Amino acid sequence: MINALPPDESAVVVRLSSDLVELTLDRLASAIHGDASAAGATIIRRLRDAVDRCVPQRPTGAGLGALPEILGTSVTLQYPLTQLEHFLSGLPSDIADASQAELYLSFVRYHLWKLEHLLRESAEASA
Fold this sequence. Notes:
Helix content: over 70%
Radius of gyration: 15 Å
Number of helices: 5
Strand content: under 5%
Low-confidence stretches: 1-14
Number of strands: 0
Order of helices and strands: HHHHH
Protein backbone atom coordinates (compact mmCIF):
# COMPACT_ATOMS: atom_id res chain seq x y z
CA MET A 1 0.00 0.00 0.00
CA ILE A 2 2.33 2.77 1.20
CA ASN A 3 5.97 2.23 0.24
CA ALA A 4 7.64 5.49 1.09
CA LEU A 5 5.99 8.81 1.73
CA PRO A 6 7.60 11.93 0.34
CA PRO A 7 8.74 14.53 2.86
CA ASP A 8 6.33 17.10 1.38
CA GLU A 9 3.46 17.26 3.89
CA SER A 10 0.86 18.13 1.25
CA ALA A 11 1.54 14.78 -0.41
CA VAL A 12 0.58 13.02 2.81
CA VAL A 13 -2.93 14.40 2.50
CA VAL A 14 -3.18 12.78 -0.91
CA ARG A 15 -1.83 9.53 0.53
CA LEU A 16 -4.52 9.61 3.22
CA SER A 17 -7.32 10.18 0.76
CA SER A 18 -10.61 8.61 1.72
CA ASP A 19 -10.41 6.12 -1.18
CA LEU A 20 -6.99 4.90 -0.12
CA VAL A 21 -8.01 4.69 3.53
CA GLU A 22 -11.13 2.68 2.65
CA LEU A 23 -9.17 0.28 0.46
CA THR A 24 -6.56 -0.20 3.18
CA LEU A 25 -9.13 -0.77 5.90
CA ASP A 26 -11.06 -3.20 3.71
CA ARG A 27 -7.84 -5.20 3.30
CA LEU A 28 -7.38 -5.13 7.06
CA ALA A 29 -10.93 -6.39 7.60
CA SER A 30 -10.17 -9.27 5.24
CA ALA A 31 -6.94 -10.00 7.12
CA ILE A 32 -8.80 -10.05 10.44
CA HIS A 33 -11.22 -12.66 9.17
CA GLY A 34 -8.85 -14.57 6.89
CA ASP A 35 -5.46 -16.11 6.55
CA ALA A 36 -3.56 -12.96 5.60
CA SER A 37 -2.81 -11.84 9.14
CA ALA A 38 0.92 -11.32 8.43
CA ALA A 39 0.03 -9.08 5.49
CA GLY A 40 -2.46 -7.25 7.72
CA ALA A 41 0.24 -6.62 10.32
CA THR A 42 2.46 -5.17 7.59
CA ILE A 43 -0.37 -2.89 6.44
CA ILE A 44 -0.83 -1.70 10.03
CA ARG A 45 2.90 -0.90 10.38
CA ARG A 46 2.78 1.15 7.18
CA LEU A 47 -0.40 2.86 8.29
CA ARG A 48 1.19 3.76 11.65
CA ASP A 49 4.15 5.21 9.78
CA ALA A 50 1.80 7.25 7.56
CA VAL A 51 -0.03 8.59 10.62
CA ASP A 52 3.29 9.56 12.23
CA ARG A 53 4.34 11.39 9.07
CA CYS A 54 1.08 13.34 8.99
CA VAL A 55 2.12 15.53 11.89
CA PRO A 56 3.60 18.69 10.37
CA GLN A 57 7.25 19.09 11.36
CA ARG A 58 7.39 22.87 11.01
CA PRO A 59 3.89 24.29 10.95
CA THR A 60 3.51 27.99 10.31
CA GLY A 61 0.72 30.47 9.97
CA ALA A 62 -2.74 28.98 9.70
CA GLY A 63 -1.31 25.47 10.08
CA LEU A 64 -0.60 26.18 13.75
CA GLY A 65 -4.30 26.42 14.57
CA ALA A 66 -5.02 22.83 13.52
CA LEU A 67 -1.85 21.36 15.03
CA PRO A 68 -3.28 20.41 18.45
CA GLU A 69 -6.18 18.54 16.88
CA ILE A 70 -3.91 16.83 14.32
CA LEU A 71 -1.54 15.79 17.11
CA GLY A 72 -4.39 14.57 19.28
CA THR A 73 -5.91 12.51 16.49
CA SER A 74 -2.60 10.93 15.50
CA VAL A 75 -1.84 10.03 19.12
CA THR A 76 -5.36 8.63 19.56
CA LEU A 77 -4.73 6.29 16.62
CA GLN A 78 -1.54 4.78 18.01
CA TYR A 79 -3.07 2.47 20.65
CA PRO A 80 -5.71 0.79 18.45
CA LEU A 81 -3.24 0.45 15.58
CA THR A 82 -0.66 -1.15 17.88
CA GLN A 83 -3.23 -3.54 19.31
CA LEU A 84 -4.44 -4.50 15.82
CA GLU A 85 -0.85 -5.10 14.75
CA HIS A 86 -0.25 -7.33 17.77
CA PHE A 87 -3.50 -9.22 17.18
CA LEU A 88 -2.66 -9.83 13.51
CA SER A 89 0.92 -10.82 14.40
CA GLY A 90 -0.23 -13.31 17.02
CA LEU A 91 1.37 -11.32 19.84
CA PRO A 92 -0.36 -10.69 23.17
CA SER A 93 -3.04 -8.06 22.62
CA ASP A 94 -6.02 -6.51 24.33
CA ILE A 95 -8.08 -7.74 21.37
CA ALA A 96 -9.65 -11.09 22.21
CA ASP A 97 -11.20 -12.09 18.89
CA ALA A 98 -12.07 -11.00 15.36
CA SER A 99 -15.30 -9.27 16.39
CA GLN A 100 -13.44 -7.10 18.88
CA ALA A 101 -10.79 -6.41 16.21
CA GLU A 102 -13.62 -5.12 14.00
CA LEU A 103 -14.56 -2.63 16.73
CA TYR A 104 -10.97 -1.39 16.87
CA LEU A 105 -10.96 -1.15 13.09
CA SER A 106 -14.15 0.93 13.16
CA PHE A 107 -12.53 3.30 15.66
CA VAL A 108 -9.44 3.55 13.42
CA ARG A 109 -11.61 4.17 10.35
CA TYR A 110 -13.32 7.16 11.98
CA HIS A 111 -10.09 8.70 13.27
CA LEU A 112 -8.29 8.27 9.94
CA TRP A 113 -11.23 10.01 8.28
CA LYS A 114 -10.96 12.80 10.84
CA LEU A 115 -7.19 13.10 10.37
CA GLU A 116 -7.51 13.23 6.59
CA HIS A 117 -10.06 16.06 6.88
CA LEU A 118 -7.96 17.99 9.40
CA LEU A 119 -4.90 17.74 7.17
CA ARG A 120 -6.81 18.82 4.10
CA GLU A 121 -8.34 21.80 5.90
CA SER A 122 -4.94 22.77 7.32
CA ALA A 123 -3.34 22.59 3.86
CA GLU A 124 -6.13 24.70 2.36
CA ALA A 125 -5.82 27.29 5.14
CA SER A 126 -2.05 27.50 4.64
CA ALA A 127 -2.34 27.93 0.87
